[in-house]
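We store chain and fold; thus.
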Amino acid sequence: MCQSTQGKFVYIYERKLHMVTKDVNITKEYGADIIPYLVQSACHYESTLHITDGSKNINMKSIMGMTILHLKKGSTFKLVAEGSDEAKAIDEIAVCFE
């Protein structure tokens, strides 16, 4: 968007924030071996991907961040995706937990 103010141009950049979220319920036990798989899967997308459980917000593309994730049967968390391929990313990442 461009606006003119008395012969000078002022550029205003608009960034619309869109975000897709999906609640995930862990229905089976996962070992630590799933963490590298999740990170590798998340890195296939341009979108930023996070897992939140209320107290933590973990970047899914960070192996260090993902190591603190405890995927215990019965736990719930929210997947959050933001970016150009967010819908595809969240749907395909959610499948990893089914």
Observations:
- Residues 1-5 have pLDDT under 50 and may be disordered.
- The longest strand covers residues 76-82.
- The CA atoms of residues 1 and 41 lie 36 Å apart.
- DSSP finds three helices and six strands in the chain.
